[in-house]
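mind reviewing this fold:
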Amino acid sequence: MARVTSASSSRPGSGMRAFVRVWLLGALLPVYLLTTFVGTFARVDGESMDPTLATGDLLLLLKYPRWLRAWGLPTPYPRRGDLIIFKAPADSPYAFETVWGIEHRPYNVKRVLALPGDSVSIRDGILIVNGRALAESYASEGFIADQDAQTLPPGKLWVMGDNRRIGASLDSRAYGLVDLKDVAGPANFRLWPKPGLVGR
């Protein structure tokens, strides 16, 4: 009995095209869209957020609040007290690091303490936001050098690590204001080892 085969199935490379279509577009594209526009994981490395976070903690980084804001849609992001994942300002000497001979801007995790339009200063080791001392039950014991008051322009954030020991956290005290464009999103939920909200 004669058999009929599809012309496309007999062409060289048709199996590869099917593989690309099914696996790359069918499986990898949704993963890419999910991790780019919805959320992904972030692992903590360092002591700047002690005692709130420790090295090895796994956080859920939400990216959709950033995109909602970028698209002009209503969102409460960012909020004072949020933990955010961001890159330090590119003009800062602390913005880049070299790993295996390759220079890059790593992501950091810190706490948002002042928002656009807020006035922020440090007096007698106390953080003052909009003229009032900020209650910081999450912060460790430590010393904070005084800084003059400044008002944050649109699109800028003031961030600090919860670890207030000298030299424990490179943050807005060292490199200034963080641009919202350099923020990947909030990461207020820890997945491991102690699941739960950690932002406030």
